[in-house]
Amino acid sequence: MKNFLKSIFTFFFLLCLGFSGCTIDISSDSSDWGYGSGYGLYDSEVLTVFNMTNDFRCNGMPDYWEEGNQTKIQIVGLKPLSLDYDLCRAAQIRACEIVEDFDHTRPDGRDCFTVYDDLGLHYTYKGENIAAGNERGTDTFYQWKEDGKYYEGQGHRRNMLNSNFTHIGIARAYAPGSQYGWYWCMILAKK
User: Fold this and answer.
1) What is the dihedral of CA 76, 126, 23, 15, to 10 degrees?
2) How far is it, in rounded angstroms, from Cα 46 to Cα 110?
3) What mean pLDDT value characterizes the chain?
């Protein structure tokens, strides 16, 4: 109960600080693609992905294929992830970057996790999910959930079900006229 109340307090505290919801529209002429700007106090689509991810982790018996595709590994006892403002900032930067180069490598050739260093963040055990093409959070969540795929196609799913992760940041960027239009990034980490 104490952790639940702490999570609720943190959520409302971030809203009061002007938490941008990690959604940006990069169709403007901004040279930094609006890393510091957003659509308002929160983005319901980002919150949808956050809630669906925790529901997936904590309810029912989620599973994924083991490496040989012979056995499904059942996951039980996962704790909900905490939505983290700093990880949302990192995800926002990455969502903008994948418009230019849809890859886990950053456009400057560095590893995706160097965004932590750029922002002065210190987390352990890091993971990244990227997706493109969907405006809605529900559709993006199902892209990452990867139902019906075997081990090689379930990397996003394994990230979401990894017990090492305690915190999450989610963001989306919209780039009209780009290949996919909408670009999403989910960053998972242990604090």
Assistant:
1) 70
2) 26
3) 82
pLDDT of amino acid 43 = 84
Cβ–Cβ under 8 Å, residues 185 and 130: yes
- Its pTM stands at 0.80
State the pLDDT at residue 42: 67
**Contact 84/167 with Cβ under 8 angstroms?**
yes
Tokens 């006892």 correspond to what residue?
Answer: 77
In the predicted model, residues of the chain with pLDDT beneath 70 are 1-42
d(CA 46, CA 132): 14
- Residue whose structure tokens are 């659509």: 39
* Residues 16, 42 contacting (CB under 8 angstroms): no
Distance from the first to the final alpha carbon of the chain: 20
Q: Give CA 154 to chain center in angstroms.
A: 16
Q: DSSP letter string over the chain?
A: -HHHHHHHHHHHHHHHTT--TTEEETTS--TTTTTT--SSS--HHHHHHHHHHHHHHHSS--EEE-TTSS-EEE---PPPPEE-HHHHHHHHHHHHHHHH--SSB-TTS-BTTHHHHHTT---EEEEEEEEES-SSHHHHHHHHH-TT--GGG-HHHHHHT-TT--EEEEEEEE-TTSSSSEEEEEEEEE-
